[in-house]
Amino acid sequence: MTPSVGAWHSAGRTDRGKVRQRNEDAFLECPQHGLWAVADGMGGHWRGDIASQLVIASLADLPLHRDLSARSKAVRQCLRWANRRLAHELTVTADQPGISASTVVVLLLEGHRGICIWAGDSRCYLWRGRRLYQLSKDHSLQQQLIDTRRISRDEACAHPAAKALTRAVGATLELNLEVLELDVHRGDTFLLCTDGLYQDLSAGALGNALDLASPRRVLEHLFEGALGGTARDNLTAVVIRQ
Question: What structural domains and CATH numbers belong to the chain?
Answer without folding.
Answer: 5-136+167-241 (3.60.40.10)
